[in-house]
Specification:
This protein is of the alpha/beta class. It has two domains: 170 residues, HUPs (Rossmann fold); 95 residues, Pantoate-beta-alanine ligase, C-terminal domain (Pantoate--beta-alanine Ligase, Chain: A,domain 2), CATH 3.30.1300.10. It contains ten helices and ten strands. The protein has a five-stranded parallel β-sheet, sandwiched between helices. The protein has a three-stranded antiparallel β-sheet with strand order 7-9-10. A two-stranded antiparallel sheet has the order 6-8. A hairpin with a 2-residue loop joins strand 9 and strand 10. Helix 6 crosses helix 7 and helix 9 packs antiparallel against helix 10. The protein binds pantoate (PAF). The site of pantoate has 10 residues, from strand 1 and helix 6.
Length: 279
């Protein structure tokens, strides 16, 4: 992969990269479209598919994470992807003489809250694998989805702090017609859970409405309490966190105003979903 990438780069051909864990949906394909737009018709668009074990906690869904390489490859071909990179565990985490992997990339600031607090070790796995993929694919531009808002911020910071020469683009979240953010994990939902999952989007809409109606903002604690109660009206849904924060620094905001970023994570049965939006 690295050799092909080096060859293209030497010939002045731009590389746009979309790292994924597969089980591709329209949200991923919109990232591919954005990568193509950025590199132009002469450029090359790479997609990687790798379900990265180090970003899953021991009790998380690594083993049951949906995998369908044949279908993913077909979607990529139809979308004009130039190269599909599907590394093996041995390539990504080589263990010569059985030695354990012992080098990681850790972002220490933006990854401390929300997903980082709820899923210890998650961002260490993400930054490590993304840095490794960048080393192999050598992209000029890499595109991530805004649904993983904190992930994109952490990767941006990693790229800046480690002087990695890649431009990070964050493309808007793709939603189903009723507003549910597209996610590979939506496949886990039963029909009833799928209906209840709408609570994420409805909570964002409710927060927007309240913030727009309040001239001087709303205390974050009050709004969190109201939204928790609103979401818990759905019997299968349990709030993991709701946070209000500055979209640049990710620092929590005590008063929620227009422009504050909201992020939330909920369990619907055993499925954990996240969403976020600027209010
Ligand atoms: O967002 C994802 O799908 C993953 O976290 C990523 C960026 C592909 C790293 O494994």
């Amino acid at each position: 992969m690295q050799r092909a990438a080096l060859g293209w780069r030497r010939r002045g051909i731009k590389i746009g990269f979309v790292p994924t864990m597969g089980s591709l949906h329209a949200g991923h394909m919109s990232l591919v479209t954005e990568a193509r737009r950025r590199v132009g018709p002469r450029g090359k668009v790479f997609v990687s598919i790798y379900v990265n074990p180090t970003q899953f906690g021991p009790k998380e869904d690594f083993s049951k994470y949906p995998r369908d390489l044949a279908r993913d490859a077909k979607l990529c071909r139809a979308a004009g992807v130039d190269a599909l990179f599907v590394p093996t565990d041995a390539e990504m985490y080589p263990r010569p003489e059985g030695a354990a992997h012992s080098t990681y990339v850790v972002e220490e600031n933006l990854s401390a809250t929300m997903e980082g607090a709820a899923r210890p070790g998650h961002f260490r796995g993400v930054t490590t694998i993304v840095a490794k993929l960048f080393n192999l694919v050598l992209p000029d531009v890499a595109v991530f989805g805004a649904k993983d808002f904190q992930q994109a911020a952490v990767i941006r910071r990693m790229v800046r702090d480690l002087n990695i020469p890649v431009k990070i683009i964050v493309a808007p979240t793709k939603r189903e017609l009723d507003g549910l953010a597209m996610s590979s994990r939506n496949k886990y939902l039963s029909p009833d859970e799928r209906r209840q999952a709408l609570a994420l989007w409805q909570a964002i809409q409710a927060a927007r409405k309240r913030v727009r109606a309040a001239r001087r903002g709303i205390p974050a604690a009050t709004l969190k309490k109201q939204l928790r109660a609103f979401i818990h009206r759905q019997s299968a849904v349990r709030v993991d966190y709701i946070e209000f924060f500055n979209p640049e620094t990710l620092l929590a905001e005590k008063t929620v105003r227009r422009g504050t970023q909201m992020a939330l994570a909920v369990f619907i049965g055993k499925t954990r979903l996240i969403d976020n939006a600027r209010l």
